[in-house]
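User: Here's a structure from my thesis project, written as structure tokens. My advisor, Dr. K., wants to see whether a designed sequence matches the one we expressed. Can you design one independently, without my sequence as a hint?
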């Protein structure tokens, strides 16, 4: 699989990513000036697709987010620099279904579900309908 520097990608107004004029399929890596990998994103036909991982400059995993069709779709987890879970949840077509936020001591400080947000629930219904039609 082709692996390139994230800065070599171009993005258009539709959020499609291009490499050398073509929709990019492969892995884009972002590195610090010291060469440490801080982001790794998979792309298929110009869209984020699959797992995106971010790291702190020290090398500790910072976050993982699953993507499908360029939208957050699936699980996400955010970690502190010492490896504790700060937040976790799940998205569907870019809409957060649920999320748990923890303070630095691990105490739960927010327990969100989409059912508590009418606007997000409406957006989810619209997205599900739109993607069901695309699949048919």
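Assistant: Designed independently from the structure alone:
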């Amino acid at each position: 699989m082709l692996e390139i520097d994230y800065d070599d990608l171009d993005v258009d107004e539709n959020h499609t990513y291009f490499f050398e004029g073509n929709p990019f399929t492969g892995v884009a890596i972002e590195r610090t000036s010291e060469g440490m990998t801080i982001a790794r994103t998979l792309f298929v036909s110009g869209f984020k697709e699959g797992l995106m991982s971010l790291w702190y400059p020290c090398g500790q995993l910072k976050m993982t987010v699953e993507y499908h069709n360029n939208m957050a779709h699936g699980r996400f987890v955010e970690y502190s620099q010492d490896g504790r879970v700060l937040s976790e949840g799940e998205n569907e077509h870019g809409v957060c279904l649920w999320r748990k936020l923890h303070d630095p001591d691990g105490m739960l400080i927010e327990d969100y579900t989409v059912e508590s947000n009418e606007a997000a629930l409406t957006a989810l219904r619209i997205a599900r309908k739109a993607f069901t039609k695309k699949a048919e």
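When you compare it with your expressed construct, this may help: The longest strand covers residues 47-55.
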